[in-house]
Design brief:
CATH topology of the largest domain: Aldehyde Dehydrogenase, Chain A, domain 1
Mean pLDDT: 97
Helix content: 40-55%
Number of domains: 2
Largest sheet: 7 strands, mixed
CATH architecture of the largest domain: 3-Layer(aba) Sandwich
Strand content: 15-25%
Low-confidence stretches: none
Number of helices: 16
């Protein structure tokens, strides 16, 4: 285990171009990140190609054992990783934030190592025998986001490594230090060249998506970038797993208990200060309990402290970058100007340092308002009143995205019936955004395609092969 300063020093470039990464809570410098080039990417891909065959030849048991050791290494450096993540991304140490994210990295490594994947006998009728196996792809390219930089990187690389692949990672330009540090810790237990982080700009990401030696690209991020990756990958017919933008709907049925669900609604919407693809971003509440839900949710939200992530008392932090802050501020201002009612927040302090936008609840808002129709990706939740469940389902399904959704009710049978009508990859009941390494996760419509997690996630990082005979 290294100290925080030693870990940061180990990823600070000693030569070549670099740039300063700033803390979004304070504006102070966190550290220097390398600015890697396309040439650096080419070297990383070549090293991955060289390392991958021997790694694949180890077999599932030996690879899983290495992933378990990597999980141990993450836990040994957990506090240092969490502090770096808090400084760079902005999320607090406590709550479902920085320490939670680092812990999830270890948990997902262990889940990838521990999930069995046996050959499947497809036919065995005495005359024909056919077995389905999954072989390594080769080199996988992983392109990650800035909101959960460590955890989503693990979601990409853990199953890829388990299945016998090498991985080249391109992190977000906003949060490269977290991913570089995570890879440094993982590489204490992995063969040289098997896992490399290339911290470059858009040219590096574009080359990764089109590179002929990359057999698969995994990407989490915006729908627009996902579409660009699809086009870039076409000439080499790459396999893709895309987890793209979402604008998740939650439907509160008239039999729900407002007080009982208020805290769950809050964390569904405001985990990571709303900067989560599968967060609750538009809430539909039946008119019979609308005001009660608004009141209970506002009471919970008002009690949640926001501030510098290194303060142990805070559970909400800043927006990671100013561009995202501006998007949230503009959407809330437009909602206010349209006549919507601001229940809480909406009043940022222009003199406060950092990218802090207050926890904001917006009521009496039209379903077509931009704050509802566009993904805000921040701490502002619109609450829409509805009269019939058919109306709520139609509004929830009206957009071209469908990553997640939720139904809130005291009647599980009724909630499941409504859930089945919603067009989304995952529909939670009486919770929102709860992911589990055992349970497949993926989007519908323009929220992407392909599955992560569990057995299906492992299969997605392999090439299916039938042995017939």
């Amino acid at each position: 285990m290294e100290t925080y300063d030693a870990l940061l020093a180990s990823i600070t470039p000693s030569s070549g171009e670099s740039r300063t990464i700033f803390n979004p809570a304070t504006g102070t410098a966190v550290g220097q990140a390398p600015v890697h080039t396309v040439e650096d990417l080419e070297r990383a891909v070549a090293a991955a190609q060289a390392a991958q065959p021997a790694w694949a030849a180890l077999g599932h048991d030996a690879r899983s054992a290495a992933l378990l050791k990597a999980a141990d290494a993450v836990e040994r450096s957990a506090e240092e990783l969490a502090h770096l993540l808090s400084r760079e991304q902005g999320k607090p140490l406590n709550g479902p934030n920085a320490r939670f994210e680092v812990g999830a990295c270890a948990a997902w490594l262990r889940a990838a190592a521990g999930t069995p994947l046996e050959p499947e006998t497809v036919v065995d009728d005495g005359e024909t025998r056919a077995e389905l196996h999954y072989r390594p792809i080769g080199v996988v390219g992983a392109i990650g986001p800035w909101n959960w930089p460590m955890m989503i990187t693990i979601w990409q690389i853990a199953p890829a490594l388990r299945m016998g692949n090498a991985v080249v990672v391109k992190p977000s330009e906003y949060t490269p230090l977290s991913v570089l540090a995570l890879a440094k810790v993982l590489n204490e237990e992995l063969p040289d060249g098997l896992l490399t982080v290339v911290s470059g700009g858009r040219d590096v990401g574009a080359r990764l998506a089109e590179h002929p030696a990359i057999g698969k690209v995994m990407f989490t991020g915006s729908t627009a970038t996902g579409k660009a990756i699809i086009k870039s990958s076409a000439d080499t017919v790459k396999r893709l797993t895309l987890e793209l933008g979402g604008n998740d709907a939650g439907i509160v049925l008239p039999d729900a208990d407002p007080a009982a669900i208020a805290e769950g609604l809050f964390w569904g919407a405001f985990i990571n200060t709303g900067q989560t693809c599968a967060a609750l971003k538009r809430l539909y509440v039946h008119e019979d309990i609308y005001e009660a839900v608004c009141s209970e949710l506002a009471a919970v939200a008002a009690a949640m402290p926001m501030g510098n992530g290194l303060d142990e008392n805070n559970v909400l932090g800043p927006l990671q970058n100013r561009a995202q802050y501006d998007i949230v501020a503009e959407l809330v201002d437009a909602a206010r100007d349209s006549g919507a009612r601001i229940l809480l927040g909406g009043n940022p302090n222009p003199e406060q340092p950092g990218n802090f936008y207050p926890t904001t609840l917006v009521a009496d808002i039209d379903n077509g308002n931009p704050l509802v129709a566009e993904e805000q990706f921040g701490p502002a939740l619109p609450i829409i009143r509805y009269s019939t469940v058919d109306e709520a389902v139609a509004q929830a399904n009206a957009l071209d995205v469908g990553l997640g959704a939720s139904v809130w009710s005291s009647n599980l049978d009724e909630a499941r019936k409504v859930a089945a009508r919603i067009q989304a990859g995952t529909v939670w009941i009486n919770k929102h955004g709860a992911v589990d390494p055992r349970i497949p996760f993926g989007g519908a419509k323009q929220s992407g395609y392909g599955l992560e997690f569990g057995v299906e996630g492992l299969k997605a990082l392999g090439v299916p092969q039938i042995i017939n005979g």
